[in-house]
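Narrative of activities, Objective 1.

The group set out to show that a structural description can be obtained from nothing but a protein's sequence at a throughput compatible with the screening campaign. Below is one input-output pair from the validation batch, recorded exactly as produced.
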Amino acid sequence: MSKEETIRVAMIDDHDLLRKGICDFIRDDDNFEIVFEAENGKLALEKMEQIEVIPDIMVVDINMPVMNGFETAKTLLKKYPQTKVLAFSINDDVQDVVKMLNCGAKGYILKGSAPEELKKAITVLNDGGCYFSAGVAEVAIEYYKQFPQ
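Output recorded for this entry:
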């Protein structure tokens, strides 16, 4: 990533305090810009219709009211394939990780991760890679083994 390039991020999570705290944390870094924040997938889709600049990375919680993270990821990526989804959840069970990967997520970070790890995950996805917290990395590796290069 060049110094001039700013990674545009959308934060979608139903916990106001957590979402706003993460947005403030990300805004403090000149390498990132928060395009919008939303408390559920339905609001995120509505905001996507209203903005001119598509976020590079969408950080999406899984367990949300109105429209959960699975539906949100599928719908966002269908309408906006140029963006990338980073799942953001407290859930580390195999079913949720695999389901988010099947919905198109390129990364999965646990909410218990260090704040700097979130920035690292966003940067890795923006640079074309995949990122997984240590607690879900083994699941992701097994998932990707299904797809021969």
